[in-house]
Amino acid sequence: MYIDTHCHLTHCFGSPSWPQDLTFDSIHYLIDISISPQEILSLSQYSPHPRIFRAFGFYPELCTMWTPEEKRRLCHWIETLNPLAIGEIGLDYHHHYGTPKLQQNLFVDQLALAHEYRKPVLIHSRNAFHDTFSLLKTFHPGTAVILHCFGYGPHELEQFLLLDNIFISFAGNVTYPSAHSLREALLRTPQERLFLETDAPYLSPLPMRGKRNTPLYIEHTYRYVADFLQLPLPTLCEMIATTFSRVFLSPKL
Ligand SMILES: [Zn+2]
Fold first, then answer.
1. Taking burial as the number of CB atoms within 10 A of a residue's CB, which of 10, 56, 144, 236 is the most buried?
2. pLDDT for 152-197, tens place per residue?
3. Alpha helices (H) in the chain, listed in sequence order
4. What's the gap in Å between 11 CA and the centre of ligand 1?
5. 14 CB-side CA count, 13 A
6. pTM of this prediction exceeds 0.90
7. Integer distance in angstroms from the first to the last C-alpha of the chain?
């Protein structure tokens, strides 16, 4: 049984629910991510599946529409929908959403909400290592910080690991032949800080690369990583399940 710490059910299936004709047997838990007011609003229409957790936050793209009113709405949703985590939030300088300053404001405000509501955070960081690192250092929410779809190399990893309560989640791109520095980062990630995710429907792992990703493909990433780290597959599954319980299901780290 596998845990997928990051996927987008709405982007995969058109709604934040698991399709009835698709098996869920191999999935232990998954975290479904909603990244906009529209996606968050639709969550209340679906009754929760016991092994599907919700996380939500305003994606960096929304930095130009972040106002005190939007913040009040987000607080209301956190209080009423009680997500497992806040995210994905962060910085994306690859896509030039708004300005760096606007992205940073949105990111820091949501780190403060995570602190206030005692929620772990799921971080999106692309082409923005220095600002992500320095903002996390200054505005650390005090809760678990999960770097989703880790996209940096071993040097950046070492820096991030200096921060408190940092966890690293690798996606299917760690299986790609050219991902040498990502695998170097994987090798140096302490085993008790490791998560795996699909980020479905994006970034399908080998041998499904090029196909539309689904949380069911998490199995390929687990097999690849177990082989790469020379761990028995059940050991890797157990290790990540233990970390998941500690970070997400226990009241305190
Ligand atoms: Zn995502």
1. 56
2. 999 999 999 999 999 999 999 999 999 999 999 999 999 999 999 9
3. 9-13, 37-43, 68-81, 100-117, 129-138, 154-160, 180-188, 218-228, 233-244
4. 10
5. 1
6. yes
7. 23
Give distance in angstroms: CA of 8 to centre of ligand 1.
6
Domain that holds residue 147: 2-249
CATH number at 169 reads 3.20.20.140
User: What does the chain come to in residues?
Assistant: 253
C-alpha 200 to ligand 1 mean position (Å): 8
| Torsional sign, CA 22, 25, 27, 32 | positive
pLDDT at position 47? 84
Residue type at 166 in one-letter notation = I
Give the Å distance between the CA of 226 and the centre of ligand 1.
Answer: 23
Q: Residue 250's pLDDT band (boundaries 50, 70, 90)?
A: confident
User: 98's torsion region: left (phi>0), alpha (psi -120 to 50) or beta?
Assistant: left
Measured in angstroms, how far is the CA atom of residue 149 from the centroid of ligand 1? Answer: 8
Which residue's structure tokens are 């994606």? Answer: 59
Task: Say how many domains are in the chain.
Answer: 1
